[in-house]
């Protein structure tokens, strides 16, 4: 049978991608270098490996950025424990993802920057690494990366697939292109039934709703010495956490905290902006609200007078989840689509969130139904929910236990995901 004709949009894309490759490389390498990436690693973006391929079976995982990269580490660790003769390669495109993943790499696993989506970069990458299977995560789907990997005879799978309604409408305008790209995957696990239905509409009937990898990613690590120091400073002082705030949400958090201080004058708010570079603006906002602030990045101590602790550092999210009994998870009061609710749940923190959580459209309602999380609409509702939990320690304890139970119930899914991948990717013979 003759191979299926490549759709015109993909042929045009391929020609354009190869033509602008030198300019694209200059731009991405300059950005990586500015973010502290070693110059020796920049050529990885053109497919030049900076490490040797290990002997034996090699599984390649490709993820877009930090969240997606971290979501697969526990799966890789599990697969590595089951198959001690396997090795693993993670690729991603951002400097932050490389820095964060480097601190948490499982045994026999290494990171490389993903090659640019050009014929030459992909050819060099695949010639050097030639993985036995490729697993893509979420929605980081590059046409040449997919087509050349498939053409090399490497079986592919897609995990944690998520397609918004808007993206689905765009895909349906070019169904042949969508089917050509997505048809290379032997296995497609989606995050939610909405994505599954969208893919079925495109003719990809083998797509099935799977487990969200973020549900089995495990607790976010933290420095225990820092946790004990903070607990010693705070003693029995009540606190709550506003995690991953975006513009427009800091005002909501501060309004809720101001209301809470009337009944709980010693209450501390730990405010963690999603992007620490916004800290000066937020600090001014806190001062304008008439609240006293200490800022972590500048080494300010928390005193009895501190009402807001601005935690504007990277890599300490796990510390704040472990410290706080109550977490308001932001990105859900603005059109961001919500952030990963499994992280505070693993720490046993009761979770409050806003009504905008399209990124976790199935997860948040399930979490709410367990009693470990509660949706609140605005600042008054948020203040009322926190006030209730502070005044009723037994209710708070129960909510925290339900939060932790929500994620521990997901643990056995690692075995199921591993089994499905092995079968679909012709790896079953090594189980």
UniProtKB/TrEMBL annotation:
EC class name: transferase
The reaction(s) this protein catalyses: lipid IVA (E. coli) + CMP-3-deoxy-beta-D-manno-octulosonate = alpha-Kdo-(2->6)-lipid IVA (E. coli) + CMP + H(+)
Active site positions, chain numbering: 68 (proton acceptor)
Pathway membership: Bacterial outer membrane biogenesis; LPS core biosynthesis
Family: Belongs to the glycosyltransferase group 1 family. Glycosyltransferase 30 subfamily.
EC id: 2.4.99.12
Alphabetized UniProt keyword annotations: Cell membrane, Glycosyltransferase, Lipopolysaccharide biosynthesis, Membrane, Transferase
Highest taxon of source: Bacteria
The name this protein goes by in its record: 3-deoxy-D-manno-octulosonic acid transferase
UniProt site (Transition state stabilizer): 138, 214
Compartments, record wording: Cell membrane
One annotated GO biological process: lipid A biosynthetic process
InterPro entries: Glycos_transf_N (IPR007507), Glycos_transf_N_sf (IPR038107), Kdotransferase (IPR039901)
One example GO MF annotation: Kdo transferase activity
Function per UniProt: Involved in lipopolysaccharide (LPS) biosynthesis. Catalyzes the transfer of 3-deoxy-D-manno-octulosonate (Kdo) residue(s) from CMP-Kdo to lipid IV(A), the tetraacyldisaccharide-1,4'-bisphosphate precursor of lipid A.
């Amino acid at each position: 049978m003759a191979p299926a004709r490549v759709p015109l949009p993909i042929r045009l894309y391929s020609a354009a991608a190869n033509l602008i490759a030198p300019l694209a490389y200059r731009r991405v390498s300059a950005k990586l270098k500015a973010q502290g990436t070693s110059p020796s690693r920049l050529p990885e973006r053109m497919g030049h490996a900076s490490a040797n391929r290990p002997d034996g079976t090699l599984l390649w995982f490709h993820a877009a950025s930090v969240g997606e990269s971290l979501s697969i580490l526990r799966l890789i660790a599990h697969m590595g424990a089951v198959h001690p003769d396997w090795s693993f390669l993670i690729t991603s495109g951002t400097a932050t993802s490389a820095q964060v993943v480097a601190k948490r790499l499982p045994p026999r696993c290494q990171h490389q920057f993903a090659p640019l989506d050009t014929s030459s970069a992909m050819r060099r990458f695949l010639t050097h690494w030639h993985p036995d299977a490729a697993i893509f995560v979420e929605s980081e789907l590059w046409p040449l990366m997919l087509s050349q990997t498939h053409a090399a005879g490497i079986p592919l799978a897609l995990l944690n697939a998520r397609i918004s309604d808007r993206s689905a409408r765009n895909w349906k305008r070019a169904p042949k292109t969508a089917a050509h790209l997505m048809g290379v995957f032997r296995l497609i696990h989606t995050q939610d039934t909405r994505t599954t239905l969208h893919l079925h509409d495109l003719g990809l009937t083998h797509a099935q709703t799977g487990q969200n990898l973020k549900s089995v990613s495990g607790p976010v690590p933290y420095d225990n010495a820092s946790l004990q120091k903070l607990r010693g400073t705070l003693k029995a002082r009540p606190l709550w956490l506003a995690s991953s705030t975006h513009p427009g949400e800091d005002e909501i958090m501060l309004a809720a905290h101001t209301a809470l201080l009337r009944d709980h004058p010693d209450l501390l708010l730990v405010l963690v902006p999603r992007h620490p570079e916004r800290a000066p603006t937020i600090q001014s906002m806190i001062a304008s609200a008439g609240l006293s602030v200490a800022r972590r990045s500048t080494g300010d101590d928390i005193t009895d007078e501190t009402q807001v602790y601005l935690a504007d550092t990277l890599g300490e999210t796990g510390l704040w989840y472990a410290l706080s009994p109550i977490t308001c998870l932001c990105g859900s009061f603005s059109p961001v689509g919500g952030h990963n609710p499994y992280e505070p749940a693993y720490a046993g923190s009761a979770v409050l969130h806003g009504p905008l959580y399209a990124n976790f459209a199935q997860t948040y309602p399930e979490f709410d139904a367990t009693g470990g999380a509660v949706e609140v609409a605005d600042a008054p509702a948020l203040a009322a929910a926190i006030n209730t939990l502070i005044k009723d320690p037994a209710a708070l304890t129960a909510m925290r236990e339900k939060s932790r139970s929500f994620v521990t119930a997901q643990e056995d899914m690692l075995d199921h995901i591993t089994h499905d991948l092995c079968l679909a990717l012709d790896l079953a013979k090594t189980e």
